[in-house]
Amino acid sequence: MSATATQMRSGRRWLLNLGIAVIVLYCLAPFYWMVVSAFRRPGDQGANTLFPAPWSLENFTAVFGPDVGFQRSLVNSLVVAGVTTILTLLVGTFAAYTLARLEFRGKGVVAAIIIATAMFPGISLIVPLLKLFTEIGWINTYQAMIVPSLSFALPLAIWTLATFFRQMPKELEEAAMVDGLTRGQAFRKVIIPLAAPGMFTTAIITFIAAWNEFIIALSMVNEKSMQTATVAISRFTGITGFDTPFGTQMAAGVIVTVPLVVVVLIFQRRIIAGLTAGGVK
Fold first, then answer.
1. CATH for 219
2. Which residues of the chain have pLDDT under 50?
3. From CA 142, how far away is CA 221, in angstroms rounded?
4. Per the domain annotation, does 269 fall within a domain?
5. What is the pTM of this model?
6. pLDDT number for residue 277
C-alpha cells in the first residue's frame, strides 16, 4: 500500500511538471518565433525552420536605419513610461495610504469611484480626450500620452498599494509616534521602507503597461518625431514601401521586449526578498 501511494504521488508530480512545461512552452513559443524571425534574412521570412539559416542582422540594421527614426521612438517610449510610473507611484502611494489608514467622510464613495474608473474601456475615452487636447494644444506632446495613461494606471496602483498598507499593523505607526515622530514622519521613515516590495511591484506593472500602450499614443500623436515605439512598429512599410515588413517588425519587437525582460529580472529578486523579509518582520 505504501509503495502504491508513493507511485501515485510520483505520478502526480510527473503530471504537474509536465503541465508546467507545457504552459511554459506555450507562453515562450511566440517570443521564440519572434526572435527567430528577427534573425532571418528578409527573403527567408517564409521559411518554417526552427533556426535561421543563415543568421542575419539585416532586420536590425533596417530598424535603426537613418530614415526610420526608431531610436527617437524608443526615447519617447522611455520618457512616457518612466514619467507615468514615477507620477503613479507618487500620487498612488499617498492616495492608497489615505484610503487604508485615515478615516474621513465619503471614504467608501471615493474607493468606489476609483474602482469604477478602472472599469472604463480605454477606447471610450479617446474621442473626448482627443477633442479636449486639441482645444488646449496638447496634441503631439508627451503630456497628451502621459495624462491618459495615468488615468488608467492610478486606479490599479491605488487599489494594490491600499491592500498592501492594510496588511501592515497599525502598531508600527503608533510606536513611531510614541517615540516622537509625526504621522508624516512615521509614514516616510517606517511605512515607506516596509512598503517597498509593493511599490516595486506596482512600478513594474505600471511601466510595462505604459511601455506597451498603443491606442492612446496612436490617437494623440501624428508627428513621426513624437511617436512611441509601439506606434512606430505598426507604421513600418518594408523595403519597397508596399511589402509586409515581417522581419523588421519582429526585430523591433525584440528590441522593445528586451527592456521589459531586463526590468523584471532586475527587480524580481528584490521583490521576493522584500516580501519575505517583511513577512518575517
1. 1.10.3720.10
2. 1, 274, 277-281
3. 9
4. no
5. 0.83
6. 46
